Amino acid sequence: MNTQRKLDKVRPPRVQITYDVELGGAVEKKELPLVIGVIGQFAEQSIPMRERRFMHVDKDNFNAVMEGLSPSLELQVESALPGQSGFINVDLRFKSMADFTPENLAKQIEPLRNLLEVRSKLSDLKGRALSNEKLRDRLAEILAEHADKLPQVNEGAETAVTENTADDATPENNNIPEDNNAQ
Questions:
Q1: Which residues pair with 90 in a beta bridge?
Q2: CA–centroid distance for 41 within its chain
Q3: 82, 88, 143, 154: most buried by Cβ count inside 10 Å?
Q4: Is residue 84 one of the residues assigned to a domain?
Q5: 94 in any annotated domain
Q6: Total domain count for the chain?
């Protein structure tokens, strides 16, 4: 058993609740364990309240409990992607804590997953171009042929970024209620 495992078992809990008890004139400290109960509808199947049972959850079985419950979230969000307006249907499924990372969340949303795939392909292309002299020369040749179109592409990208930044600064997009009674 390694040292870290030993420390994990010996380390006291982060929250310790103690109280003083008088027993026969002597004051004795008693410690209470911290127990938290959470009640909620986290799974797709609906179990009647009376039939629900407590589950012991700790750091070792957290992912297994999440996989068993299969919590999910379905909603519509306004698109903030350039060139796309309207709403996007979002259906998120969680089976482990890793599913909450930004990359894994993006993989569950169709337009964002497509952007991640393009990003990955561009990264692969960049890696290959750096290690392959013929490919690097061919890309430089293509860029030289279409150099007159590059400013238009760059300008379009800057316009899209500027429009999205200006839209995000409005109070309704930041969920800041407007105070009409302010004096």
A1: 75
A2: 20
A3: 88
A4: yes
A5: yes
A6: 1
Tell me which H or E stretch contains 30: strand 26-32
pLDDT in tens, 119-138: 899 888 888 888 888 888 88
∠ CA 120-126-131, nearest 5°, is 130
DSSP structure string for 104-156: HHHHTSHHHHHHHHHHHHHHHHHHHHHH-HHHHHHHHHHHHHTTTTHHHHHHH
Decide if 135 contacts 126 (C-beta within 8 A): no
Low-confidence ranges of the chain (pLDDT < 50): 164-165, 168-183
Q: For residue 73, tell me if it sits in a domain.
A: yes
Instruction: Judge whether 90 lies within some domain.
Output: yes
What is the spatial distance between Cα 114 and Cα 27, in angstroms, rounded to a whole number?
66
* pTM (2 d.p.): 0.53
Task: Please give the biggest Cα pair distance in the chain.
Answer: 95
Give pLDDT tens digits for 149-177. Answer: 767 666 655 555 555 445 544 444 444 44
